[in-house]
Amino acid sequence: MNPHHAASPKIGVLALQGAFQAHAAVLSMLGAIPVEVRLPDDLDGLDGLILPGGESTTMLRFLELHGFLDRLRDFVHTHPTFGTCAGAILLAHAVQNPPQPSLDAIDITVERNAYGRQLDSCIQTAATTLPGGPLEMVFIRAPRILQVGPAVTVLATRDDHPVLVRQGDVLAATFHPELSSDQRIHRLFLQMVQAHQAAAVRPATGSPASAPRASA
Ligand code: GLN
User: Fold this and answer.
1) Which among 32, 47, 187, 201 would be 20 to 30 A from 119, CA to CA?
2) Within a domain: residue 211?
């Protein structure tokens, strides 16, 4: 009935533990179809994935159980993926405090639980390069991004440290955008998903590179 329905992207939300329901609610509000991911096969047919906040060590323990970590690594290296807080830790290139395995989907080094006791959970408003003015950021025992590689774009900072970063199809926030009413970051992610889909269906014929093979 809804003419847009067929085009709605299916976005998985890793639902092993942590703050997955709020992400699903935002996705629904923006016209996407959220799918809770609890088993490796739940990744089949998804157009993108959100790794939510929670405890990254607890999530890792689940993921290491059924070969899920390898399936997840394949998925996040080939599909748009958005990690928030613990999810950003899982996506990082390297993790400190203490070191733990990660998916190496975005070239950042993160330090877990990096803010002192009094600052570890707070709401801040900070500047972002996203259109629409300053962004509310909910930090909950957040990691700090210590290093970003040359391919990473910094979209927002807190006290000079990056807190929202993107590299290609991967987006990572050290805060919880799903807990604020501002939907700009989820919108950005859905635009990334759309762009990925458009690139995947673009016919090879007609592009300059394919012209010599047109007779095939
Ligand atoms: N402190 C958590 C971790 O290290 C992350 C906290 C969060 O996701 N809100 O995994």
Assistant:
1) 187
2) no
pTM across the whole model: 0.91
Instruction: Read off the pLDDT band of 157 (50, 70, 90).
Output: very high
Whether residue 214 lies inside any domain: the answer is: no
Cα dihedral 105/79/142/155 (nearest 10): 90
Which stretch of DSSP H or E encloses residue 68?
Answer: helix 68-76
Instruction: Please work out whether the CB of residue 14 comes within 6 Å of at least one atom of ligand 1.
Output: no
Kindly state the average pLDDT of the residues 22-33: 98
* Domain ranges, residue 79: 10-201
Catalytic residue among 85, 93, 111, 186: 85
- pLDDT at position 25: 98
Count how many domains the chain has. Answer: 1
Mean pLDDT of 111-125: 87
Residue 192 forms part of a structural domain: yes
Looking at residue 204, what is its pLDDT?
A: 58
- The answer to whether residues 164 and 154 touch, using CB atoms and an 8 Å cutoff, is yes
- Cβ(17) – ligand 1 distance below 6 Å: no
Kindly give the number of the ligand 1 atom that is closest to the alpha carbon of 113.
Answer: 1
Tokens 């210590």 locate to 146
**CATH value at residue 19:** 3.40.50.880
86: CA distance to ligand 1 center in Å?
4
Is there an atom of ligand 1 within 6 Å of 24 CB? no
Sheet with 153-158: strands ordered across = 33-37, 10-14, 48-51, 81-84, 170-173, 161-167, 153-158
